[in-house]
Amino acid sequence: MSDILWADGARQRAFQQWLGEQAGPHRLEPSSVRPASADASFRRYFRVDGREGGSFIIMDAPPGHEDCRPFVQVAALLRDGGLNAPEVLARDEAQGFLLLSDLGSRTFLAELQAQDFSSRDGLKVVDGLYHSALESLIQLQRIEATSVPAYDRALLRRELDLFPEWYVHRHRGVTLDDTQRQLLEDAFELIIKVCEVQPTVLVHRDFHSRNLMVTGGAPGVLDFQDAVRGPVTYDLASLLRDAYIEWDEAIQIDWAARYWERARKAGLPVGDDFGTFWRDFEWMGLQRHLKVLGIFARLNHRDGKDGYLKDLPLVWRYAHHVASRYSVLRPLSRLLEHIENVEVKFGYTF
């Protein structure tokens, strides 16, 4: 436990007491506790060994910053729906401590980065991972979503507002004039209108390679506590236009078409025209990527987490790619270039 740093002595004592209370019923070895991972919030995760083998995960979610109740709720929802999500074995929601089953330490991202993309075997592994992820996504989207919040216009807009506040002004140091602010306002309105009319399903909201685990079976699904009822294309955009790994668009389209065919057979509301579905996918991805630019900048400037800065260029390219493709979004693409102080040649538009 000496590897774990505590800024608050009272929090450390509360954790140690709670862990001691769980050690007997769950056959834990408290002395084996060590860091497992952290995420882009105030949550931390520790791993602890069991006395009879195996390991468990402990979530530390300080109640002044985090509410672990949505995690508990959505974990049950996913597990009841057949997803490979962690089981909540013990919980103290008031103090923000959860004991969870351990889905391992090998993320999809780590497995993908270990592959040789020039080899047939490497590509086979990659395709297999995405096939399993898409199957899990369809399974997730078939779960009834009435018990989670709606991904409504207000939430879509709050997320988009992170872009001018944290990325444009705070990170890039750019002050928009009245004309540019209106341009951005018009673009946001266009994006929201396309996204808010999409059919809705259960949305994980961070369904990507860092939150999917290689388990030897169905993918382990993590970081689902912010699940909502929202646009059917959202999680697919998170997965195929991942902030942490990039695929050629031809590969994205192939995987998206496979998903769309399987989703239609499963009765999900993806429509009968793949071209329309792909348009919706792109616009939904644009909303997400503008939000992510703001979030990653905020993590650096507000929270002191600079590890996401290296991912900003890829996220910017995703956003610019879509804004450049659709003629009504061309003013947004030029604004993105202005903010970045670059001039980009663009191809066809719709």
UniProtKB/TrEMBL annotation:
GO molecular function, one term: ATP binding
Domain Aminoglycoside phosphotransferase positions: 33-264
Pfam families according to UniProt: APH
Keywords noted in UniProt: ATP-binding, Nucleotide-binding
SUPFAM superfamilies with a match to the protein in the record: Protein kinase-like (PK-like) (SSF56112)
Coiled-coil ranges (or none): none
Taxonomic superkingdom: Bacteria
InterPro entries recorded: Aminoglycoside_PTrfase, Kinase-like_dom_sf
UniProt-recorded name of the protein: Aminoglycoside phosphotransferase domain-containing protein
